[in-house]
Task: structure prediction
Amino acid sequence: MTSPLEDFQELAELAERIAHLAGAHVLSLIGGDNARLALRDTADRKTSATDLVSTADHASEAVIVAQLAIARPRDGIVAEEGSTRPSTSGISWVIDPIDGTTNFLYGHGSFGVSIAAVRDGETIAGVVYDPLRRETYRAARGFGASCNGRKLTIGSPTPLAEVLLGTGFHYLASRRRRQAELLVTILPEVRDIRRQGAAALDLCYVASGRLDAYYEAALQPWDRAAGLLVAQEAGYVGVDLDLGGELDGTLLVAHPDLLEQIRDLIVRANELHR
Ligand code: IPD
Ligand code: CA
Ligand code: CA
Result:
């Protein structure tokens, strides 16, 4: 079983190599607008009419799973588009083959490949790769986080009124309604809101300073595992807020000195609109 700390970095290196292969493959599938439109036209719906999955998502997942089967045949797989394999090593890989599928299919820039290694419920290595921007966010537990090899370090806390706050909306209409209601209270209190459409990148952007904080309800393990480790290893903190009902399990990630204020704002917004 892998246990020495240095192995976490090897896992991160492997995740990076595989994310680059998958990202290159995804880009090769959208050579022109027509290819992208064809992918969109043939996309399936998953949990709701708004929740798309294309052949590119499946193709990216196939690349990642095949590479992991060669490099780490005893590790488990938990992947968004359905690939699963039990672990006999104690390590499993949590995979979002394209995070930001809607952006990808509509020609918006923000999408990425997210790959994390998890052991005993703890993420030990993670990579989020944005193939259009050619940005690789990478973290290994205990070894810090980087973007394209540049170490990510925590900045100063931003006053609440100047916070650029990222969030996202779930695919279920009833949960979206609650998420929109909270924004009525939150938006006037901060600099602005960003709904970028790729949770894994949102988390990395807290680490790199493109967002001051980020929150979202009901993320799946593949949306958050790698990006959360990147944010944590850069010095930011993540908490799961129990807001009740459809907003239970709302992840909030922020500077440690800002966390309480944003948590209070979200909790207040939730109580006002319950
Ligand atoms: C979605 C994106 C989106 C977030 C959703 C996710 P997908 O992932 O990360 O930003 O708001 O909660 O499900 O479907 O593009 O992999
Ligand atoms: Ca996702
Ligand atoms: Ca996805």
Observations:
- The chain has a mean pLDDT of 95.
- The pocket of calcium ion (ligand 3) is lined by residues 57, 80, 96, 98-99, 101 (CB under 6 Å).
